[in-house]
Amino acid sequence: MVSRVAVLSDIHGMLAPLDRVLAEPAVRDADLIVVTGDSTWGPQPVQVLDRLTQLGDRAVLVRGNVDREMLQIARGIITGLPDAALSVWGASQLSAEQLELLQEMPEQVTIDIDGFGPVFFCHATPRTDEEVVLVDSAPQRWAQVFSGLPTDVATVVCGHTHMPFVRLVDRRLVVNPGSVGLPYGRAGAHWAVLEDGAVTLRRTLLDPDALLRETTAGSGYPRITEWLDDYVRHPASDLEALATFRPREEL
Ligand SMILES: [Fe+2]
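^ thats the input. predicted complex w/ fe (ii) ion below
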């Protein structure tokens, strides 16, 4: 049984925010760090995976859709990712050991946590690594995506949509920690802590100039300036992200 779990999600190859979050006392002192996917597809995927691997047994890494897609591209499978240039570059950077790591990474884990019982961690939903479910999705939609969950699971933690929330869904608590690297709606690196039966949504404030400077200097991606401009300097608001995701929410 573990007592304090820090959850980090959707780091997206952003090493600087990851390092700031790992230095937070609540993360440093956590019994376990669970990373709910999408660690890659970003400017420093190699360094981010190295950093997470260095955590050893303190970290449990779950695979997200972009991690799977990086692996598929590296293996020569066409995925149709929207930003092909960064995907192709990222896949070419990963070492054989890192591809193996992604290959072996689970898509879901269940961990017993004091005050919670079994907690189910996944990237998007328990059924797939890419379907969309939103904070205001209808009860029928939640029932659909949770249909295969064991009845004793009363807490579900998932990422994928880069917007933090905690809500109840038919007696289950659903937690999305938001995104460490590419948040929508509010700046900073977003994460969560599960402790004593309570969930705390946390945010690490970042100096935007330092973030851009360090990421530009640390990345070998040839179009890094343009990419940072699109994804970090001018991120989508939560309303824009919800509007984009909404059509992908199926009933
Ligand atoms: Fe993501």
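The chain has a mean pLDDT of 95.
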